[in-house]
Amino acid sequence: MADKVKKAIAIFDSGFGGLTLMRQIIKTLPSENIIYFGDNLNAPYGDKSKNEIINLAKKAAFFLYQKDIKALLIGCNTASVYAYDEISRHFFGLPVIDVISPSLKMVFPLSKDKKIGVIATKATIYSQLYRKQILAYNPTAQVFSLACPTFAPMIERGEFENLKEIKRALLPLIKKKIDFLLLACTHYPIIQEKIKEAIGEEVTILDPSSAITLELENFLKRAQLKNEGSLRGRYEFYTSGDAVKFKTIAEKILGIKINIPIVYLS
Amino acid sequence: MADKVKKAIAIFDSGFGGLTLMRQIIKTLPSENIIYFGDNLNAPYGDKSKNEIINLAKKAAFFLYQKDIKALLIGCNTASVYAYDEISRHFFGLPVIDVISPSLKMVFPLSKDKKIGVIATKATIYSQLYRKQILAYNPTAQVFSLACPTFAPMIERGEFENLKEIKRALLPLIKKKIDFLLLACTHYPIIQEKIKEAIGEEVTILDPSSAITLELENFLKRAQLKNEGSLRGRYEFYTSGDAVKFKTIAEKILGIKINIPIVYLS
């Protein structure tokens, strides 16, 4: 049983976004071993069709399923929205965790005026999942959803400081005078400071990575899968894109030195 | 793997309280097989010491561990507060779920004025867990905790209509003009209508059993343990108390006919 606990948590994302989650998981659960796969070659998922997203996500999940893992965290909102059920169905016996519900649970405790902005990829916004779930919680809330299709590609290029583009993209939300902004794409915490600068200090911005990590920890605890060992976790990286570029950007986001990622092309 | 899914969910409570959860689980997850153990002989747990609660809860959990189960739901707030870690530590490889966190997540979306009442057993209130967690969410909330030590024994006796005692016990809260009342003992939904009558129509009362069931469902889904079969679940009951009394009261709470419970004395 102890062996099971020592297996790795797999995290998968369309690219670099899931690293914001990994950063938080390393902080909160330092003993956990982690295998990360970034499908950078196919990023962003947010402009693709439902079928394309499902196919890519299934391929990524199947690749990780064959590793020595104890659970899969879909570290990508777009894939969580469209491919959770499909992945889960083929992930016999291994837990699959998504990023949607933990962040939704954080919205109401934190939003004061209930003028809630949600930014995400085109595909996530198009699904209307966040809007529907927030209104199901509180029908009197005002939800302003905005697709920001330039953000993930910008971040995939390693461009984290483009305030001009961030301001341009967020203009419709700035006008709405929201009090709360949910980052519903794991890429966005990487540019959170610039988003704050663009949208104004008075708006509470929710990077859901702590909430997701807390839910992951709860899950592992309940499933008797939490690694409580005193050894520091080992990390292993895979990308479908450029390994050197991955290493540079991942080190910037995680704030630690990492091994050269292994290139996986399906 | 299919076999694992068909194993039962075990629910354990100090007595009849966990049946309010079982009622909701039957509604939401009709295919799940359920084994229920009510430690009626030792009810209520809420007046006992921490050590006594831990010992009783561990005994109950160990009894259920030996059955063919896939997960344990601690259907008792008092045992969740004091014995979760201890049970979890000895429940090798089998998931253990508590009733605390799901209900806490529901408080803020539902409470308008943030004048929040919490009623529970002596031991639960004494732990201050709910107060602390609510204030951690929102330091400006007003939390009014009240132990209602007569409620669980009343319910264990099968006395569900004693409005006079319910009013007497709730008087300190009635004076506080709360807008929201959390039932932090699984026994209390059994007398929810009378509580409503006592505290006033304008107070929103939260029976957390739907939230707990939703979280249980989420957990089972993520852990690949949800039974999605089309057969109706089978139910098996154990009590440390009087089997005939258990049957009568359980049928009243669940609204279905049940088999005579098996008496288990540790």
Summary, kept brief:
2 copies of one chain form a homodimer. Helix content of chain A is 47%, strand content 17%. By secondary structure, chain A is an alpha/beta fold.
Describe this structure in words.
Two copies of one chain form a homodimer. The first copy, chain A, has 266 residues and is an alpha/beta fold. Chain A has twelve helices and ten strands. The first copy, chain A, has a six-stranded parallel sheet, with helices on both faces. The interface between A and B is medium-sized, with 22 and 22 residues.
Layout of strands and helices, then pairs:
The structure is a homodimer of 266-residue chains.
Chain A: H1 2-6, E1 8-13, H2 18-28, E2 34-38, H3 50-65, E3 69-74, H4 77-89, E4 96-97, H5 100-110, E5 115-120, H6 122-127, H7 129-137, E6 142-147, H8 151-156, H9 163-176, E7 180-183, H10 192-199, E8 204-206, H11 209-222, E9 235-239, H12 243-254, E10 262-263
Parallel strand pairs in A: 1-2, 1-3, 2-9, 3-4, 5-6, 5-7, 7-8, 9-10
Helix pairs in contact in A: 2-11, 3-4, 5-7, 5-11, 9-10
Overall form of chain A: globular
Q: Strand arrangement, largest sheet of chain A?
A: 4-3-1-2-9-10
How many whole angstroms does the radius of gyration of chain A measure? 18 Å
Q: How far apart lie the N and C ends of chain A?
A: 32 Å
Annotation field: number of helices of chain A? 12
Estimate the mean pLDDT confidence of chain A: 94
Main beta sheet of chain A: strand number and arrangement? 6 strands, parallel
Largest interface: A-B, 22 and 22 residues
Helix proportion of residues of chain A, in percent? 40-55%
Q: Which regions of chain A contain 5 or more consecutive residues with pLDDT less than 50?
A: none
Q: What's the oligomerization state? A: homodimer
What would you call the structural class of chain A?
alpha/beta
Strand-residue fraction of chain A?
15-25%
Order of helices and strands of chain A: HEHEHEHEHEHHEHHEHEHEHE
